[in-house]
Specification:
One of its GO terms (molecular function) is DNA binding. This protein has about 160 residues and is mainly α. Helix content is about 70%, strand content about 5%. It contains seven helices and two strands.
Length: about 160
């Protein structure tokens, strides 16, 4: 969150919730990225590892949709995670797809990622009480649902 002085530097824009949220997100994600550096993963790659663990056998298209990234970025992420030894490709539901699975090293990495992200969340949101964190989580979920509805409406209109 911005201080009053930081917000004032942007005039009326500094009062916009979207800009404040973005600025906060950038700072928090930079801290997370720094924390995950020792694990040799970015926040996006860490998210992919946890998703694959929870959705063993998913294909790259499903992973890309879940992460909100395009096909080329998904392929790059999968290649990097495979090179890291965290995942392996197995035959998929047809000849054109691969099923993604964590390796034993990937399972260990997943555990370390979950520990690191938990510690980061505790530090990043320490200024909030437990009740405020729960409320903030509910409000963010509400905003995501609204953004999904708006994005869907624009796709229909466009």
């Amino acid at each position: 969150m911005w201080t009053m002085e930081e917000a004032a530097a942007f005039g009326a824009l500094g009062e916009r919730l979207g800009l404040q949220l973005h600025s906060t997100d950038v700072r928090i994600m930079a801290g997370l990225a720094a924390r995950l550096t020792s694990l040799n993963v970015t926040p996006a790659r860490a998210t992919a590892i946890v998703y694959i663990a929870l959705n063993a056998g998913c294909d790259q298209v499903t992973l890309g949709r879940a992460l909100g990234i395009n096909r080329a970025s998904t392929m790059k992420a999968v290649d990097e995670l495979e090179a890291l030894g965290a995942i392996e490709r197995r035959p998929g539901r047809d000849r054109r797809t691969n099923a993604l699975h964590l390796t034993a090293a990937g399972e260990i990495l997943r555990t370390r990622i979950e520990e690191a992200t938990l510690a980061h969340d505790r530090e990043a949101f320490a200024a909030l009480t437990e009740e405020e964190r729960a409320q903030f989580s509910r409000l963010l979920a509400k905003l995501r649902r609204g953004a999904t509805v708006e994005a869907g409406a624009e796709a229909v209109e466009g």
